[in-house]
Amino acid sequence: MNKIRVTKSFNFETAHALYGYDGKCKNIHGHSYKLFVTVKGTPIQDSSNPKFGMVIDFGDIKKIVKAEVVDKFDHAILLNVNSPHKELGENLMKEGHKVIFTDYQPSCENMLIDMVNLIGPQLNKMVELQSIRLHETETSYAEWLAEDNR
């Protein structure tokens, strides 16, 4: 059978601050993130299946990623719970802002690992999470590949 990779992209806005960083990114700032989620599988061969000919319905990828990543991260501020930013985040929450406290430095790389752990378990057993690419800017991104993590 032929294996096919299927990719869907997503956009969301998130702010973060990098605790202990030696540059501008130590301050709260935001990005327009672009996320690419790629899965691999074999197209369904059962002609009685409504998903006949598909590896996965793009709508199914959308439901998973929207629920697990986009709805969670969009217009939120990510702060390391173990940093001095915690108090600031708590005050922002009291004012009605959406704050996510992470147990990791909220760098693009660590956010990506978090997203892998959120998306992967939600996929059906007929497809395999192949890669996730998270663009922090137009020219800068981090990428996770299944083949590198076996």
Q: Could you walk me through the main structural features you see in this protein, from its secondary elements to its overall organization?
A:
With 150 residues, the chain is of the alpha/beta class. The chain has one domain: Tetrahydropterin Synthase, Chain A (2-Layer Sandwich), CATH 3.30.479. It is built from three helices and six strands. The protein has helices at 58-73, 85-94, 108-119; strands at residues 4-16, 29-41, 76-80, 99-102, 127-135, 141-145. It has a six-stranded mixed β-sheet, with helices on both faces.
Keywords:
6-stranded mixed β-sheet; 33% strand; Tetrahydropterin Synthase, Chain A; alpha/beta; 150 residues
Task: Present the secondary structure layout.
Elements: E1 4-16, E2 29-41, H1 58-73, E3 76-80, H2 85-94, E4 99-102, H3 108-119, E5 127-135, E6 141-145
Parallel strand pairs: 1-3, 3-4
Antiparallel strand pairs: 1-2, 2-5, 5-6
